[in-house]
Design goal:
- The complex is a heterodimer of chains A (235) and B (601).
- With 235 residues, chain A is an alpha/beta fold.
- Helix content of chain A is 32%, strand content 27%.
- In chain A, β9 and β10 form a beta hairpin.
- Chain A is globular.
- Chain A starts with a strand and ends in a 7-residue tail after the last strand.
- Chain B is α+β, with helices and mostly antiparallel strands and 601 residues long.
- Chain B folds into four domains: 181 residues, no CATH class; 239 residues, no CATH class; 73 residues, no CATH class; 57 residues.
- In chain B, α8 runs antiparallel to α9.
- The chains are: A alpha/beta (235), B alpha+beta (601).
- At the A-B interface, α2 and α3 of A face α1, α19 and α26 of B.
C-alpha cells in the first residue's frame, strides 16, 4: 500500500533482568496507514508499551535480527541521532498513561515545551497561539497559567494531548491514555481522540481494555510477543 | 531557549539551589577574606619597611661609622641617589610622666638619633607625625600648663582682683579638665587685658600658633631646645578608637607633648665595656605612628647630636695613653647606620650595588694619614643591605604563610566541586523522569547536559558574586568587626536571649503536634541563640577579647584592602569548579535511557 505511514517489521525486543533475559517481543509486525486509528490490544505485560516505544523511536529493537521501524519508508534507526530526535519531536506525539507533565512549568509552558525543544522560542507567537487554541479546543482555556498539580486527571491528560499535538505531528502514539482515569473521564479523553481522528490524525493507541479498543479502525492483538492479524475482535 | 526556561524554573521553585548558592558564596568569601588579609599584611610589612628605612641601609653598629658626613655627600653626588641620612641607634630608658605619684614608670625604648631634615627625605617621617595640630582639649591643657608653670611671671603682671579670679578659674579647671572642656580660653581671655594675654601666649609657641607642633616634630626642637618624638604606643596614655583614630586618656591629660622626658642611655666603650649612664631631660615635641606596632611601641627619635652625646659617639680628642695632655688627633663623630633612598624607578637591588661601589670609592679616597678610618667592606661588622634583606626575618615568614594559606584554602575549591556534585547528583536523580519526558519529545543528549551546566553556571555566578560582595564587605569592615567581636554590645546578648525565648515558645507550641521537624529546628535555634547570648556575656565578663593582638601581628590595624587579582581568580575558580561538579551528573542525566527514565518514580 502506498499510504503506509508507519511500519514495524519483525520487531524483537529482549530485556535483561539481572542474569535472566526476558523476550518481550519476538516477532511483531504492524502497518499503520495514514489517517488510521490502530489499537494494539494486549494484556498487562504483553509488551504493548514496548511496541509503542519502538514505533516512537524511544527505544531500540534488539541489535541482532531486531527488525526495522519504517516511517514514510525510511528506517528510523538507520539515521543520525539528530534525525531520531527530530522524529520524536516533529513526526510523532506521545501521550502517556501518567500524563508526564513537568510540575514546575505552567500548563501553557508544558504545551509549548516541544516547540521550544524543536527550536522555537517560547515567545514565538505561532507556538503560543497554537497552544492557546488547542487548550480552548479541549475546554481548558481558563487553565493556561495553572500548574499541573492544580488540575484533575482528565484535565492533565488533555494538556498532555495538547502538548503532543503542538508540533503538528503525523502520528499520535497513546499509551493507555485512559488507564489512570475513571470511566467517564476516560470516555471524554477518547472523545477528544475521536474528534482528532476525524480531523485526519493518525493514531496508534495501546490498551488492555476491549471496549476502548473498539474505538479504533483497526484492532490488533498482541500475544506471546507477536501481533495477530487480521484485526478482528473476539467479542 | 527551553533550557533557560527550565533552568529558571528549577532555580526558583526549589530550596536546594539556594543552599548551593549560599555554600558557594561562603566558600568564596572565606578565601577572599583570608587571602586579602594575608596579602595586605605582606604589603604593609614591605611598604612600611621601605618608608621606615629607605632603600639601602649601611650599618656598622660596633663602634659607628666615622666621616659619615663625607660619605653622605659622596653618596648624594651620585645621580641615582635621592638622599641619604645618618642614624645613631641604641637602647635607652624613658621616664614617663605617669602615674600621678612621684614614682614614675620607665619604658625601654630604641633611640634613633636622626638629622630631621635629611631623615624626612629618606623616609616618610613627616607623614608619620601624629599631631598636626592640637585638639581643642589639648589647647586647653597647653593654656593651663602655660599659666601654672609661669604663675610668678603672670602674678607680677596682674592686679590682685584679676589674679584671684584667674586662680579660681584655673583651680576649677585643674579638676574638671580631666573629664570635660571648661572653656578655659574664653574665661581666661575675659579677665586678662591684651598685654597680659600676649604675655600668656608668649609662654608657649603652640598657643599662638597651633600648627607649630608639627614643625616642632619635624625639627625635633621646641622653643629653641631639643626635643623628642616618641612612637604612639610608647605612651600608655594613647588609646586606639574603633575608627582607628587615637584618643588620649583622661581627656588628654596624659598627652605627651605636655611633658618633659628623661632619657637615659648606656654608652659602651670600644672594648664593649659599659661606661657611666648618661641622662638628658628634654620635652616631648610630638608623637609618630608608622603603623608597625613593634616600632611604634618602642622607638623614639632624638636629634642625632643628642644620641651621639649619650652614647659617646660624638667628636672627641684622642690623647696619648701615657701622657693625657698630649693630644694625638680628633676622633670624629660617628653614625651607626646610613639610610639611602634612590631616585624613583631605581630598584633596591641596583641601588645596593651602586652604594657598595660608592662606599669603596669613599674609603679609598680618604687620605692615608687619616687617624680613624671607616671599616673596609671586608669587615664582617659592616653590612650594606637592601630594605628587603634588612626586613627578611620579618617578611620571609609572612610570605611563606600567605602561600601556605593560599594552598590550604585552595581545598575550598574541591569543597565547592564536591558540594555541587552531590547537589546535582540528587537534582538529577529527582529530575530523571523529566529527562525521560524531554527525551521523548526530541531533546538531544547535548541539550540535556546544557540544562544542568547552565543551572550550575547560574549557581556558580550568583554564588561567587555574592561571595565577592560578602568578602569585600567583611574585608573592608574587618577592623570594626574585630572590635565588635572583641567587645560586643550588650544588645546582642539581650536580643539573642529574646529570640531564644520566642523560639522556645514556638517550639513548645509546635511540640504538641508531635511533628519532629519543628522540634529539631526549634531546638537548634534555641541552642544557637542561647550560645550567642552566653558567648557575648562571657566576653563581657572577661572584659573583652583581643583577637588580633597588635603586639603579635606587628600592625595596629588589620589590613582591609581586597586583593582584587586573587579575588577574581577565586571567583573564576569557584565558577569553574561548579561546572566541573555539575558536568558528571549532567552527563549521567543525558545518558539515561528515556524509557527507564519515564518509569522512574
Amino acid at each position: 500500500m502506498s499510504n503506509v505511514i508507519l511500519e514495524g517489521k519483525n520487531l524483537k525486543k529482549t530485556y535483561r533482568l539481572g542474569r535472566a533475559s526476558v523476550c518481550v517481543l519476538t516477532d511483531a509486525s504492524l502497518q499503520v496507514e495514514e489517517g488510521q486509528w490502530v489499537t494494539i490490544l494486549g494484556s498487562s505485560g504483553s509488551g504493548k508499551s514496548t511496541a509503542l516505544h519502538l514505533l516512537g523511536g524511544l527505544d531500540r529493537p534488539d541489535k541482532e535480527n531486531g527488525g526495522i521501524v519504517h516511517f514514510r519508508g525510511e528506517s528510523i534507526w538507520h539515521q543520525s541521532n539528530r534525525r531520531i530526535n527530530k522524529y520524536r519531536n516533529k513526526d510523532i506525539g506521545f501521550v502517556f498513561q501518567f500524563y508526564h507533565l513537568l510540575p514546575e512549568l505552567s500548563v501553557l509552558e508544558n504545551i509549548v515545551l516541544p516547540a521550544m525543544v524543536g527550536g522555537l522560542g517560547f515567545a514565538r507567537a505561532s507556538a503560543k497561539s497554537r497552544a492557546i487554541s488547542l487548550l480552548e479546543k479541549f475546554g481548558l482555556g481558563h487553565r493556561i497559567s495553572h500548574r499541573p498539580r492544580e488540575l484533575s486527571g482528565g484535565e492533565r491528560q488533555r494538556v498532555a494531548i495538547a502538548r503532543a499535538l503542538i508540533n503538528e505531528p503525523s502520528i499520535l502514539l497513546a499509551d493507555e491514555p485512559t488507564g489512570n482515569l475513571d470511566e467517564k473521564t476516560g470516555g471524554e479523553i477518547l472523545d477528544v481522540l475521536s474528534t482528532l481522528h476525524k480531523e485526519g490524525l493518525t493514531i496508534v493507541l495501546v490498551t488492555h481494555n476491549i471496549e476502548i479498543a473498539q474505538r479504533g479502525d483497526v484492532v490488533v492483538r498482541l500475544r506471546h510477543g507477536q501481533i495477530d492479524r487480521p484485526a478482528t475482535l473476539a467479542h | 531557549m527551553y533550557q533557560l526556561l527550565l533552568t529558571t524554573k528549577y532555580l526558583t521553585s526549589r530550596v536546594i539551589p539556594l543552599i548551593a548558592v549560599a555554600a558557594v558564596g561562603l566558600c568564596v568569601a572565606l578565601v577572599i577574606v583570608v587571602v586579602s588579609v594575608m596579602s595586605g599584611f605582606l604589603n604593609m610589612v614591605q611598604s612600611s619597611g621601605r618608608t621606615l628605612m629607605g632603600d639601602v641601609v649601611i650599618t656598622y653598629g660596633i663602634s659607628g661609622l666615622p666621616h659619615y658626613g663625607g660619605l653622605i655627600t659622596h653618596l648624594e653626588d651620585n645621580e641615582n641617589i635621592f638622599a641619604a641620612t645618618p642614624i645613631v641607634d641604641g637602647w635607652g630608658l624613658l621616664r614617663m610622666p605617669y602615674p600621678d605619684s612621684k614614682a614614675k614608670q620607665s619604658e625601654t625604648v630604641q633611640v634613633w638619633g636622626i638629622e630631621p631634615i635629611s631623615f624626612a627625605k629618606v623616609t616618610s617621617f613627616d607623614k608619620s607625625l601624629q599631631w598636626k595640630t592640637p585638639t581643642e582639649n589639648q589647647m586647653e591643657w597647653l593654656l593651663f600648663d602655660a599659666i601654672t608653670e609661669n604663675q610668678d611671671t603672670l602674678r607680677r603682671a596682674m592686679g590682685d582682683d584679676e589674679w584671684e579670679e584667674l586662680v579660681v578659674i584655673v583651680n576649677d579647671a585643674s579638676g574638671a579638665l580631666n573629664y570635660e572642656s571648661v572653656m578655659l580660653w574664653e574665661r581666661v581671655q575675659k579677665i586678662l587685658d591684651d598685654e597680659q594675654w600676649s604675655l600668656v601666649l608668649s609662654f608657649d609657641e603652640r598657643l599662638s600658633n597651633p600648627d607649630a607642633i608639627f614643625q616642632q616634630g619635624l625639627s625635633l626642637s621646641q622653643n629653641g631646645s631639643e626635643g623628642i618624638v616618641s612612637g604612639l604606643h610608647v605612651s600608655e596614655g594613647n588609646e586606639r578608637q574603633k575608627d582607628g583614630s587615637y584618643r588620649v586618656v583622661r581627656n588628654d591629660y596624659w598627652w605627651l607633648p605636655r611633658y618633659d622626658a628623661t632619657l637615659t642611655m648606656l654608652p659602651v666603650d670600644a672594648g664593649g665595656g659599659v661606661i657611666e649612664p648618661e641622662s638628658i631631660i628634654m620635652p616631648f615635641v610630638n608623637e609618630f605612628q608608622s603603623g608597625v606596632f613593634m616600632i611604634d611601641e618602642s622607638r623614639v627619635f632624638v636629634p642625632i647630636n643628642i644620641a651621639q652625646q649619650l652614647l659617646h659617639l660624638d667628636q672627641a680628642e684622642i690623647v696619648d695613653e701615657n701622657d693625657p695632655t698630649e693630644i694625638l688627633g680628633i676622633d670624629p663623630a660617628k653614625a651607626t647606620s646610613i639610610l639611602v633612598r634612590g631616585i624613583p624607578g631605581t630598584s633596591a637591588d641596583d641601588l645596593q650595588i651602586i652604594v657598595e661601589q660608592l662606599y669603596d670609592e669613599f674609603v679609598s679616597s680618604l687620605p692615608l694619614h687619616t687617624l680613624v678610618l671607616p671599616p673596609s667592606r671586608s669587615n664582617p661588622g659592616l653590612t650594606i643591605h637592601t630594605w628587603e634583606e634588612q626586613q627578611r626575618s620579618f617578611t620571609g615568614p609572612v610570605e611563606k604563610e600567605r602561600e601556605l594559606m593560599r594552598t590550604l584554602f585552595s581545598i575550598v575549591y574541591l569543597v565547592v566541586a564536591a558540594l555541587i556534585l552531590s547537589i546535582f547528583w540528587s537534582i538529577v536523580f529527582e529530575k530523571t523522569r523529566d529527562i525521560g519526558i524531554l527525551r521523548s519529545m526530541g531533546a538531544s543528549r547535548g541539550s540535556i547536559v546544557w540544562i544542568f551546566l547552565q543551572y550550575s553556571l547560574v549557581i556558580g555566578i550568583i554564588g561567587s558574586s555574592l561571595g565577592l560582595l560578602v568578602g569585600w564587605l567583611i574585608t573592608k569592615n574587618i577592623n570594626s568587626i574585630h572590635d565588635a567581636m572583641g567587645n560586643p554590645p550588650l544588645g546582642i546578648a539581650v536580643g539573642s536571649f529574646a529570640l531564644a525565648f520566642v523560639v522556645a515558645v514556638y517550639t513548645v507550641s509546635k511540640a504538641k503536634s508531635g511533628q519532629m521537624l519543628p522540634i529539631v529546628l526549634g531546638g537548634l535555634g534555641l541552642v544557637v541563640f542561647c550560645g550567642i547570648g552566653a558567648l557575648v556575656l562571657f566576653i563581657k565578663s572577661v572584659g573583652g577579647l583581643i583577637i588580633w593582638d597588635a603586639s603579635v601581628y606587628y600592625f595596629s590595624i588589620i589590613p582591609n584592602e581586597v586583593d582584587w587579582p586573587s579575588s577574581l581568580v577565586t571567583v573564576c575558580g569557584a565558577i569553574l569548579f561548579c561546572l566541573i561538579g555539575a558536568v558528571i551528573p549532567a552527563a549521567k542525566a543525558a545518558d539515561t535511557d528515556p524509557v527507564k527514565a519515564l518509569r522512574h518514580e
